[in-house]
Amino acid sequence: MQQNVTLEARVPTATYRLQFKGDFRFCDAARLVPYLDALGVSDIYASPFLKARTGSMHGYDIVDHNRLNPELGSRDDFNAYCAMLQRHGMGQILDFVPNHMCVEGGENERWLDLLENGPSSAHGEFFDVDWSPVKKELTDKVLIPVLGDQYGTILENGELVLSFQEGAFFISYYEHRFPIIPKTYSPILTHRLHELERLFPPDHEAYRELLSIVTAIDHLPFYTERDTERVRERYREKEVIKRRLWTLCSENWPIKEFIDENVRIFNGEKGNPRSFDLLDGLLRQQVYRLAHWRTATDEINYRRFFDINALGAIRMETPRVFEETHRLVMELVSEGTVTGLRIDHADGLYDPTDYFRRLQRACFLETRLASLGGSAGETPETLRETILQMYDEMLEVSPQTMPFYIVGEKILMKNERLPEDWPIHGTTGYEFANAVTGLMVDTRNGREFDAMYARFIQERPNFAEITYLKKKQVMRFSMGGEINTLGHYLNTLSESNRHTRDFTLGSLTRALMEVIAHFPVYRTYTATRKVADRDRQYIEYAVAKAKRRNPAMSESIFTFIEDVLLLRFYDSTGGEEQKQWLDFVMKFQQLTGPVMAKGLEDTAFYVFNRLVALNEVGGTPERFGLTMEAFHGQNIERSRSTPFTMLATSTHDTKRSEDVRARISVLSEDPTFWHDCLMRWSRMNRGHKVIVQGVKVPDRNEEYLLYQTIVGAWPAEEFTADRHGVFVDRVRQYMLKAMREAKVNTSWINPNPVHEEAVHHFVDAILRNVPTNGFLADLRRTLPPLVRCGMLNSLSQTLLKAASPGIPDFYQGTELWDFSLVDPDNRRPVDFDKRSVMLEGLRLAEQERGTLALARELLADMADGRVKLFLVWKTLCFRRDHRNLFEAGKYLPLEVQGERSDNVCAFERYNDGESVIAVAPRFFSRLGAVPAGGEPWQDSRLVIPFESAGCAYRNIFTGKRVVTSPREGQTILPLADVLADFPVALLEAVREELPR
User: How far apart are CA 859 and CA 849, in angstroms?
Assistant: First the structure.
């Protein structure tokens, strides 16, 4: 995808991810801006800050797209924060969530309206609800799987509580709140009516008003009414009824007491099951069916984000939904307070390509309107039409025009590329995270690790087989409702043709599951009757694999599925049926991604633990590392196709931080060392295992994962007693999540508390901070060299991220060492004051003592993390000062010669007379973990093409110059000189030849 970015697109030079939440607000971010600017960051990359569910820790559970989250501050606070950004010339990329909203907790007004008005709700088109589901009892209803136990049990425990507030009735279940349909108020208002008659004469005004209200209720159109005028009538009259009822109660206390007593009666009496019949009868008349959360597995009839019941998908393909959900964000784009967008979970959208096109169009309109500020003689509507016509003309000339900076969260599998017709600048950078981690893994030792892992866990795992089985497990136990719905849809399609109508529902559904289980990518992107060659290959691959695995199933069923997915219409397939086929394909595409994510990332990655540094989002753990040639090849391709894509190493979604992965990768360099550690530690800790149902816990695979986790997350600095306790608790919480995600001995759906407690006991025992703990003593002896090599690895990967084609992104806090594990561990508070003070200290120290002296000082004590902060600061400031070099510069891999040639990744970026060389060593354990100095490099050298001898380069990390020299007909830079004082190098060409 050759990019053509107009001048209006503000491309960042480096981004910094901030996680907004209740303890990190807009005012906190505003105070942080000067520090980030000094660090060299050009844009804050903000987590979602639109109104989310109360207490949200991440912002992805949005309840209103058109309000800022009040827990983060007021609009004035937000404006002050944005003003601070603008004063420092910085931009802001907003993480926007178009796929779903939070539908639990009673805060989403659109969802509450749907629950009160059903299929004819004014917001019915917002949510992806199947009003004619497989379970016929749910026709025109929506299943709400929120209860902690069976419905009858919850009801008779008195946990479902009817209430009366301001003329309306509601059902509450703890923090959840559900409206009662006004049409069904009558049973509450008329219960015990004869008792009210004894209080009021028949002609009493209050009594007559109550009866009049009941009559009005009886005349309300039902919620299944679709006639527009009747729907409007219901909306109008139900609100009138609520106001009349509240007025009546406010002015007539006996009426209020009468209704309150009826509410009490409806709420039943615990211990008397029959007393709940009234409430049960009322609930049966509602739009929603409250149910045990486990029913979601098979019967849920609204699309979710993955298998999370609280997050209901919205139909962004509907123009009105797009317009209404983007109103505030477009206002922020127009103001210039949002200068870029990161789109969350694009694969969940019905048609991602169309969404991105509409988004670019809308952003162009808003930015252009803002820049024009009105035009004399043109009405606002005319001006909008003129601007959109201009945009359409631009697209005709250059279809890949992208006037606004947008990146999409897209997980690319091995050899998969971003769809070429997506008008975005790239992805959020998972590909780079996996590439740079793979580069730090010694590919030559893959077989030894296979054998070692198999011996330790006493089985030989096959990653592809694990993934297949886990995807099927997810489809059966987490997403069965979605699979059933899609199977029924496929069955309907089969019924229309005499050659396919004999395929049974069961066989079609099973075959569909097999195809999805073998799907090699997250999804395809068919949106018209033309299937892209790329998508065709994925579909044919999946179907062929499914056929091969299931020889007992009729091949014709798989052929039919392939025909539908490839839109190979039969001669008898009419126009309406063709639309249905395409709709099925697009719904199929929305499902394969969640199955892949839950089966691969969230399950298989916790089962296959050979070297967990490779178990990262978008990664391929079965491939043991990445060759130097492949890493360079990816960089070259990125510089050509998506030069402004993000480059990530840590994110809020990564399974482990960049520094944890960098350290675990060191293990790949010496399998014998790791084998000896495993054997020694396993023997030491054997006595701490607990027998659960005849089996030792933790199992061997869990134990193997635990040792890697301890190695990776072990702090760089010395423990205090308090910090040791925090570390143990973090490991405990991680192991709990890892075990439940693996779904082997326990799971989120069916927790096994005995097994979980046994593992926690093991963690506590082996990490008990007492002098007699031999394992802890062994860790303290064994880990320091590993920790040191890991820090050096991290410096290399940080430099590679900052110098490679793309936009380097830094997750909050990772400018110092960060040994976080998967969320919520990686959402712990960050000490920004500490970082700010450190950066200012570095700046002053460089002024006073010089760059070289400072670099040597930092290497003497790497544990405090200042050396990483220094590298980030120097690199990002250089990148900002030479942005054209990095944005438009060519990428040239450099040859390394000599005995250590495999230990260095080096490349040159050059453009318009400027040149810079990045030198990043790896496999430090072979170098004796020496951070700098000439001795380890011996005669190893960089070959500098197209240069003559005597050309000077300045290392921005030391200030020292190195000069090219001739050798065997080549121009070279000795690595002993390049890396004499610092473990990595960024060499700026000094365009003045020194005397020879």
Answer: 15
The pLDDT of 457-474, averaged and rounded, is: 97
670: Cβ contacts below 8 Å, ≥ 6 apart:
925
- Do you know the residue count of the chain? 996
Gap between the Cα atoms of 656 and 794, Å rounded: 13
Q: Which of 598, 645, 594, 601 is nearest to 619 (CA)?
A: 601
Query: Please, is 117 exposed, middle or buried when counting C-beta atoms within 10 Å of its C-beta (0-12, 13-18, 19+)?
Result: buried
Given pLDDT bands bounded at 50, 70 and 90, which one contains residue 398?
Answer: confident
Which residues, listed in sequence order, are joined to residue 55 by a DSSP beta bridge?
none
Helix (H, G, I), strand (E, B), or coil: what is residue 970?
strand
Q: At what angle do helices 658-666 and 430-439 cross, to 10 degrees?
A: 20
Closest CA to 979 of 927, 922, 937: 937
DSSP secondary structure code for residue 48 in this structure: P
SS3 985: strand
| Cα–chain center distance at 837 | 32
Contact 431, 630 (CB under 8 A): no
Q: Give backbone dihedrals phi and psi of 726, rounded to 5 degrees, phi first.
A: -65, -40
- Determine the Cα–Cα distance for residues 270 and 291; give it in Å rounded to an integer: 19
How far is the C-alpha of 842 from the C-alpha of 831, rounded, in Å?
17
Share of the chain above pLDDT 70, in %: 98
Q: How far is CA 102 from CA 105, 304, 480, in A?
A: 8, 10, 21
- Separation of alpha carbons 357 and 257, rounded Å: 57
Determine the Cα–Cα distance for residues 201 and 865; give it in Å rounded to an integer. 83
Crossing angle of helices 327-335 and 352-372, in 10° steps, is 40
The C-alpha atoms of residue 526 and residue 353 are separated, in whole angstroms, by 10
Q: What is the DSSP letter of 72?
A: G
Using alpha carbons, list the distances in angstroms from residue 581 to 293, 315, 520.
32, 19, 22
Q: Taking Cα atoms as reference points, which of 7, 89, 44 lies closest to residue 367?
A: 7
Whether 949 shows a pLDDT value over 90: the answer reads no
- Closest CA relative to residue 937, chosen from 959, 957, 915, 962: 962
Give the 3-state secondary structure of residue 718. coil
Distance CA 652, CA 818 (A): 13
Cis peptide before 824 (omega within 30 of 0): yes
Burial (0-12, 13-18, 19+ Cβ within 10 Å), 132: exposed
- Alpha-carbon Rg for the chain, nearest whole angstrom, is 31
Task: Give dist(CA 254, CA 256) in Å, integer.
Answer: 5
Task: Compute, in degrees rounded to 10, the torsion defined by CA atoms 101, 106, 109, 115.
Answer: 90
Question: 406 - beta bridge partners?
Answer: 341
Q: Which residues contact 295 (CB under 8 A, 6 or more apart)?
A: 143, 145
| Other Cβ atoms within 10 Å of 247 Cβ, number | 12
Residue closest to 703 by CA, chosen among 678, 670, 674: 678
Tokens of 716: 């760089």
User: Which residues make beta-bridge pairs with 100?
Assistant: 313
Kindly report, residue by residue over 146-193, the tens digit of the pLDDT. 999 999 999 999 999 999 999 999 999 999 999 999 999 999 999 999
pLDDT at 8 over 50: yes
Q: Which two tokens stand for residue 163?
A: 């209430």
Distance from C-alpha of 49 to C-alpha of 344, rounded to nearest angstrom: 13
Q: Are strands 807-811 and 952-955 parallel, antiparallel or unpaired?
A: unpaired
Q: What is the mean pLDDT of the chain?
A: 95
Report the distance separating Cα 92 and Cα 664, nearest Å.
33
Distance CA 173, CA 272 (A): 20
Provide the token pair at 460.
């030989």
119: closest CA among 232, 239, 230, 225?
Answer: 225
pLDDT > 80? residue 996 = no
User: What is the maximum span of the chain, computed from C-alpha positions, in angstroms?
Assistant: 117
Neighbours of 163 (CB within 10 A): 14
CA distances from 584 to 304, 350, 536 (A): 17, 11, 16
